[in-house]
Design a protein that fits this description.
By secondary structure, this protein is an alpha/beta fold. 35% of the residues lie in helices and 16% in strands. The chain is built from 6 helices and 6 strands, in the order βααβαβααβαββ. It has a 6-stranded mixed sheet with strand order 3-2-4-1-5-6, with helices on both faces. Strand 2, helix 3 and strand 3 form a beta-alpha-beta unit. The longest helix is centred in the middle third of the chain and has 16 residues. The protein is globular, with a radius of gyration of 16 Å.
């Protein structure tokens, strides 16, 4: 893929869902289907007004409630239908799901530290980060191919899935995906296509810096 002659090329906006109660509790959600808080819904409404200014051509989203409800706010403004797909769900993390950050450290500390070092780890007996990228990145590219020249795709997903997708599309070695900082709730990153492939144009945009709550969820 490359930018069209004289055009800016296509863009991908990867938008993390709004706040949930488990985010506040620093509880690992993974593929658990947790709804937005009232604050999370307000975050989605505010962010949707900003993202609508980008005039997106299409919206795809994880089918989990927190992502679907976030995407619905942008759909209401733009009039686009949202295409929901389980391939955009957060990493399945087995027995880690439902545990707080402190509980994970206490019960699975070695596994957690190995993951932070960049080793391929099935957290909680679940998916590898590369497996998440294997399901999410091709779906994103499939929808990008349907865009008009200089078109924009909004992808509404989860912190971990967005990071692995960005890492894969940028061609980074999986060991270095963790170097991409997390996204705050309802913030987004933007990829643009250029002559050498995808480039990271913005990361964790949307607000003044806020704490990243529950990065992989």
């Amino acid at each position: 893929m490359s930018a069209t002659k004289g055009g800016r090329g296509r863009r991908i906006v990867l938008w993390r869902h709004g706040q949930t109660s488990w985010n506040l509790e620093r509880r690992f959600q993974g593929s658990t289907d947790i709804e937005l808080t009232e604050t999370g819904l307000a975050q989605a409404r505010r962010a949707a007004r900003l993202l609508a200014a980008l005039r997106p051509d299409a919206i795809i989203a994880s089918d989990l409630k927190r992502a679907a409800a976030t995407a619905a706010q942008l759909a209401a403004i733009t009039g686009h239908q949202v295409s929901h797909d389980a391939a955009l769900r957060e990493t399945y993390a087995g027995v880690w799901q439902g545990l707080t950050h402190e509980e994970i450290l206490a019960r699975h500390g070695d596994e957690y530290r190995a993951w932070k070092r960049g080793e391929p780890v099935r957290r909680g007996g679940g998916e590898l980060e590369t497996e998440v990228a294997d399901r999410a990145a091709p779906l994103v590219l499939e929808h990008v191919e349907k865009l008009p020249e200089d078109g924009t795709l909004v992808v509404v997903s989860h912190g971990g899935t967005i990071r692995t997708t960005i890492g894969r599309l940028l061609g980074l070695d999986p060991h270095h995906w963790e170097s991409l900082g997390g996204l705050s709730n309802c913030c987004w990153s933007v990829l643009g296509e250029g002559a050498r492939g995808w480039r990271l144009l913005e990361h964790n945009a949307g607000t003044l810096p806020e704490p990243v709550l529950g990065d992989d969820d």
